[in-house]
Amino acid sequence: xxxxxxKTANQSVPAGSQIALLSLSHLSHPYGSFDHxxxxxxxxxxxxxxxxxxxxxxxxxxxxxxxxxxxxxxxxLKAYESSLPLDExxxxxxxxxxxxxxxxxxxxxxxxxxxxxxxxxxxxTSAGLDQLDLAxxxxxxxxxxxxxxxxxxxxxxxxVGLLIDVLRKISASNRYVKNGFWASxxxxxxxxxxxxxxxxxxxxxxxxxxxxxxxxxxxFGCTVSYNSRKKKNPDQVPYPFYQDVRELAANSDALILCxxxxxxxxxxxxxxxxxxxxxxGVIVNVARGAVVDEKExxxxxxxxxxxxxxxxxxxxxxxVPKELLELDNVVLSPxxxxxxxxxxxxxxRLVVGNLEAFFSNEPLLSEYEDD
Length: 371
Ligand SMILES: O=CC(=O)O
Description:
Pfam families: 2-Hacid_dh, 2-Hacid_dh_C. The chain has about 375 residues and is of the alpha/beta class. The protein has helices spanning about 45, 60-65, 85-95, 110-115, 135-140, 150-170, 170-180, 180-185, 205-220, 245-250, 270-275, 295-300, 320-325, 340-360, and strands at about 50-55, 75-80, 100, 120-125, 145, 200-205, 225, 255, 280-285, 310, 330. The longest helix is centred in the last third of the chain and has 19 residues, at about 340-360. It is globular, with a radius of gyration of 22 Å. The model is unreliable at about 1-40 (pLDDT under 50).
C-alpha cells in the first residue's frame, strides 16, 4: 500500500453476529435523541448526497450491522468495493470527500490525509484513537468523533469476567470437564484463587477504569488503587493513586489495563513492572496490546514469573503468540470486549447521528477534545 498507513482488520465474522433489524428511533440514548434522524434516501435522491468515505474491512461493517448505517443525509463511498490500490482509488474518487468513517483497525496517518484535502471530520467506531494521527488531524483542522462512552460498561464487564476466569480457572476447568478428565483423572487440581479481598491496580482510570473499579470494589470486596496520567480529585475518586506503574504493580494482586495507547503508555507494563507484580500476580488487558511488552509478558507467563493473564488485546492482532495457546493460566478473547449486540445498536445510532450532525452543521454528538 505504499506510503499509505491504512490497514483493516482481518477478522472473520462470528456466526450470529448480524444484528436484528429493530426500529432505533424509540430508544433513549446517552448522546441524545435520534428522533430527528431522517429516513433513508431513495436511489434517485442518493446520487446527490455528500459522500462519507468508508475505510473499514467489510467484515467489520457486517458486525456493526451495515443496514443500520443508512441515512438520507449522506451515502458511503466504499473503498473496499474497488479493486484499485487504495491510493489510486482515493486519488481518483475521494479528493472532495469531507467525512471519513473508520474503525479501530484503520490506521490513518499523514499519507492518507494528503489524499483527502477536503476532509473535515473523522468518525471512528472505536473508543480508542491510537490508530489516528491526532497531531496531524489537529494541524489540518480535522475534527474527530469517537464511540465515546458506549462501550465502557461492556468492556468493564469483560475485564471483570477475564479476571474471575483466570483466578477461578473457569475456562481451564471447562476444558477439563469437556475433555472427559473429571471422570478419568478425578477432581480438578486445587489452584483456584478467591477474588474477594484482592488488591486491584487499575492502569487508566477513565470511563472504563472507573467502571471496573466500582464493580470490583462494591461487588466483590476488592481494594482498588490506580495509575493515570493525572491524579483525580480525591473527593470524587477515593482510591489511592500511584504515579509509577511499577509501584502500583508491587502493591497489587492483579493489574487491569484500561488506558488508551499513547507514546506514554506504550510498553508501560515492561519487564520491571511484571517483576514487581510478581509470581502471584495477574494481568488483565482490555486496553491495547502494546500497553504491555508482550514478549516479556509471554516469557513471564511461560517461566511462572507471573501467575496468569486475561487478554482481550494483543500487539499484532489477530496474531496471538502461540505460547499463550498452551497455557491453562491464560484466558484469551479476540478483541471482543466491546462487541455486544446492544452496543452495536448504539454504535450505529451514534455514527449516523455524528455524520448527520456534521452535514447539518450541528455539534457532533461525541466529539473528541484534546485535554
Ligand atoms: O477496542 C475497541 C475500541 O477502542 O473501541
